[in-house]
Amino acid sequence: MPGRFIFEGLFMSVGDIPNTISDQEDRPGTSGIWMFVFIDMVIFLLLFLVYVSERIRLPDIFAASQQLLNPLVGLASALFLLTSSWCMVEAVNAARRNAERAAATYLNLALLLGALFVCNKLIEYSDKFAHGISPVSNGFFTFYFIITGLHFIHVIGGMCFMSHCRMRLSTELGSPNFRKKVENVGLFWHFVDVLWLFIFPMLYLAGVK
Amino acid sequence: MTKGQLIKRWSLRARTIWLLLMALSLVSTLLAEGSDHAVYAVAAIFVISAAKGDLVIMHYMEASKAEPHWKFLYRAWLGVVTVLLISGHIL
Fold first, then answer.
1. Fewest CB within a 10 Å sphere: which of A56, A89, A133, A202?
2. pTM score, whole prediction
3. If DSSP states are collapsed to H, E and C, what string results for B36-91?
4. Separation of alpha carbons A187 and A85, rounded Å
5. What is each CA distance from B8 to A101, A162, A187, in whole angstroms?
């Protein structure tokens, strides 16, 4: 089943392959996750490039449309993700020292903050639709929905991976594979955070005045 | 230094970075809302984003402990994105 393959491949360590896990033991995550995240980063870079080129072509439409976004909503999202990221750092740290209770607490907090981000984004989307703003309203909102929508999917994905780690915590904690799994999920979650660090100012802050 | 002390120190560093990231996010928003110098404000906002991104990549993702080429590539991505966004908003 391809879905299962992708899901497991994302955050399973490659312990079965000789000489791989021993080489990576002291390094955070696996080579696979660093590569996957970097490819994803390049995809977002290309999206940003197209956004910027369209912004240069249609500066007035973009500036006027940005006025319709509430920077405080974007800021709230940033604060939720940054705090969630910090919780994930603590969860990884706890998993490394086999501290089950601390790992469970921080994973729960990271998930809760991720859920707050999701709620915030859904409220924002519904508000936009209620005001007749959709992906086809103009060029800016096409980018707004594509970029934030893709990011939203990454958030949901990251939350699924975190939930998986939370469910397996009590049975798998202590194994090298689980440690790598949590590290990989952490890496992915921090990447989602880094993306928002640029999406937030790009869509909500810059060029509004 | 004992293992417990190391863990506490590591945890304190993560918390300090988190507070710094939160503060920088507030500064960015205040800059966007309150500055009349739009061009400088935009450049400053993206430079702050790059600084935040670097903190997350180096300390939270621990790129400094990863294979050296990942540290280089991730930082290069930050640089390219920052230059792209600043130039795209200033041009």
1. A56
2. 0.89
3. CCHHHHHHHHHHHHHHHHHHHHHHHCCHHHCCHHHHHHHHHHHHHHHHHHHHHHHC
4. 9
5. 16, 24, 22
What's CA B18's distance to the chain center, in Å?
Answer: 11
Q: What is the ipTM of this complex?
A: 0.93
Determine the Cα–Cα distance for residues A162 and A84; give it in Å rounded to an integer: 11
In B49-68, the residues whose Cβ lies within 8 Å of chain A are 49, 52-53, 56-57, 60-62, 65-67
For residue A209, the model assigns a pLDDT of 53
| Cβ-Cβ contacts under 8 Å, A190 against chain B | 56-57, 60-61
Task: Report the distance separating Cα A86 and Cα B12, nearest Å.
Answer: 11
**Closest residue of chain A to B91, computed from CA coordinates:** A56
- Sole residue written with tokens 């130039």: B87
Question: Which class for A108: exposed (0-12), middle (13-18), buried (19 or more C-beta within 10 A)?
Answer: middle
pLDDT at position A1: 46
How far apart, in whole angstroms, are the C-alpha atoms of residue A151 and residue A43?
12
- Shortest Cα distance, chain B CAs vs residue A2, angstroms: 28
Residues 9-28 on B with a CB inside 8 Å of A are 10-11, 14-15, 17-18, 21-22, 25-26, 28
